Structures are given as C-alpha cells and as structure tokens.
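@channel sequence for tomorrow's demo:
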Amino acid sequence: MSNNLAQAYLVGNAVDHPQIRIKGLDGGPTLTTFRVAMNHRYQGADGQWQDGDPCYMEVQCWGALGDNVCATVCKGMSVIVVGRIVQSTWEANGEDGKSVTRSVLRVRATHVGPDLGARNVLVNVRKAVEQNAAQNAAQNAASREAELAAAQNLQNAQNPGSKPELVGVGAGGQEEEVEPAF
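structure tokens (generated this afternoon):
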C-alpha cells in the first residue's frame, strides 16, 4: 500500500459562513463545511497587476475542528487551510433521465486558522492561559522562596554571631518562621 496522499495548503477568503452539515448524535462527530475562494495575481504585459481566475474549494471540518471553525470563521475572513484532497462520487439523474456519475473534489481539513498576514486576530486561548497562570504562580512562589533564602543568607553572613533564622512562605503566601532542621 502506498502512502500517496494529495495534501492541500489553501490560502484564501471564506466565501460563506461555515455550516453544520451533520450534527454528531450521541457523541458522534460533527461535520462543518465552508467554501474558500483563492485567487492569484500576476503582472500583465503592460506591467500592471491583474487578478487571475478565482478557484473555489469546499472545506470539510470534522469533530472539534468543525466546532471551532463554526464558532470562529465568518464570511470574508482570510484563512489558511491544511488538509488532504478527497473525491466524492455519486449517481444522479441526467437531463435525459439516464444515470450519470458525478464527482467533486473537496479538502478534508486537519488545520484551519486565520491568515495573520491579512489582519489582526483576537484568539481565545483559555486553556493555555490557565496553564500559564498555574505555571507562573508556581514559579513565582519558588522565586519568592529563593529570594527570601538569599536575603536570610546575606543577613547571616553580615551577623555571624546571631542565631540563624529561617523564613519560608506558607500555603497562604505569608512569610512564616521555620525552625532549623540542624
């Protein structure tokens, strides 16, 4: 079996608002779709920049990606899409009543994001912010303890005859006196 996948990297504008096509029932995956319009610019023989022919591609987003796309992407927004090209084929009745095979190429997205080269975007990073806050609190507590210990060592070095007094930081963030362990 070969590993020949048609990877797609699209940069364009959302043509419409994302729509939920299949709502996951009983924990099943949700399918959200939207279309992206891509265009290229080229310099004509006269030296002027011109727009080329637009290309439209339907993007499929499954599961959490689809939920996030539906909540974030809107019509006209410049987006970057990464995924693989898939072909859907079906039978339809032709004009003469005969069965005709139809097909369409789509991109099954693995990643969708705003194009930051086109505009500023406010991103909601709730989980990352909570994790960073917890890490910062732990680092600040450790840093505060190290500062107190260094200050105490300096004081002890300046007063060599005095009894060492150790100070730590309690659970409430308050300084408390600690008995030496030696």
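heads up for whoever presents: The longest helix spans residues 126-158.
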